[in-house]
Amino acid sequence: MIINETYSLSNGVKIPKIGLGTWQVKDGDEVYKSVLAALRNGYRHIDTAQGYQNEKGVGQAVRDSGVPRQEIFVTSKLESDIKTYEGAKEAFKNTLKELGFEYLDLFLIHAPWPWSNMGQNCDEGNVLAYKAMEELYNEGLIRAIGVSNFEQKHLENILNNTDIVPHVNQIGYFIGLDQSETINYCEERNIFIEAYSPLGIGFLLSNTDIKQVADKYHKSSAQICIRYLLQKNVAPLPKSVNEHRIIQNKEVDFKISDEDMAFLDTIKGDPRRWD
Ligand code: A2P
């Protein structure tokens, strides 16, 4: 079953193919129940971030789940406005404290620039933060390190100025969103791609072309969106706070034909709305 399968990162660390996303899930009861439901149903990969402000609930659920810590792959991300060496070290310490963990599986720079100033050139700060992460990695406190929302130019800066090629780049990726430039660059350098918002934060589910493919396979549109990404050899991170959807999103042990993949590739556009 796909929920038990893993990909291998460039350093040999195994990462479960499907992860539970937790962006916009509230700390406390909401995230706690979502993570517990996922773990109860076989998920072994949970994605959080300092910026989501729910690390505490994620950690509590992992620790209460009864599943051994080492069987669960947990990712967190450095707050987007922290672009210093000391700041990154301090923030990582706090992440471990919030999660209640001895170590983290994957730590990412959340974005190349602060969310409050998208597009700002933070090349120097990204290198400083990444160097702090390299040290934490070498100390054994993090099993893999990487970045998120990085385009080629941001990655080039890291590759030119640091020692460890990022193991992961987590990007927004779903049917219709063309990420080929970043993906090609990453694939050539063995940087693994994770796909956040695999359902286009839910907006893809009303796409009639996707629905048509879903009906043909007797699957839901969500399952087509997730399966599509798996056939692109990336790790989708679907978010849900409903157990029946959490279950549905892992039931993707079917194959979309090459012909239907090609049809899904013709869909273009980003349906996300932020209201
Ligand atoms: P909810 O959390 O209420 O279940 P994305 O992963 O692209 O960010 O999309 C997340 C959105 O899609 C959330 O609003 C989530 O709602 C919804 N969602 C997740 N899985 C499903 C599903 N299988 N069917 C319908 N909606 C889903």
Q: Please tell me what the overall shape is.
A: globular
Mean pLDDT: 97
What gyration radius follows from the Cα positions, in whole Å? 18 Å
| CA distance, first residue to last residue | 37 Å
Bound small molecules, by name, code or SMILES, are: adenosine-2'-5'-diphosphate
Strand content: 15-25%
Overall structural class, as computed from helix and strand content, comes to alpha/beta
Supply the CATH superfamily name.
NADP-dependent oxidoreductase domain
Q: Per CATH, which architecture?
A: Alpha-Beta Barrel
- Biggest sheet: strands, sense, closure? 8 strands, parallel
CATH topology: TIM Barrel
CATH class: Alpha Beta
Count of distinct structural domains: 1
DSSP summary: helix tally: 10
Major beta sheet, strand line-up: 3-4-5-6-7-8-9-10
Order of helices and strands: EEEHEHEHEHEHEHEHHEHH
- Kindly state the percentage of residues in helix: 25-40%
Topology of this protein?
Blueprint: E1 6-8, E2 14-16, E3 20-21, H1 29-40, E4 45-47, H2 55-64, E5 73-78, H3 85-99, E6 104-109, H4 123-138, E7 142-148, H5 152-161, E8 168-172, H6 180-188, E9 192-196, H7 208-217, H8 221-230, E10 235-236, H9 243-250, H10 258-265
Parallel strand pairs: 3-4, 4-5, 5-6, 6-7, 7-8, 8-9, 9-10
Antiparallel strand pairs: 1-2
Bound molecules: adenosine-2'-5'-diphosphate.
The site of adenosine-2'-5'-diphosphate has 18 residues, from helix 9.
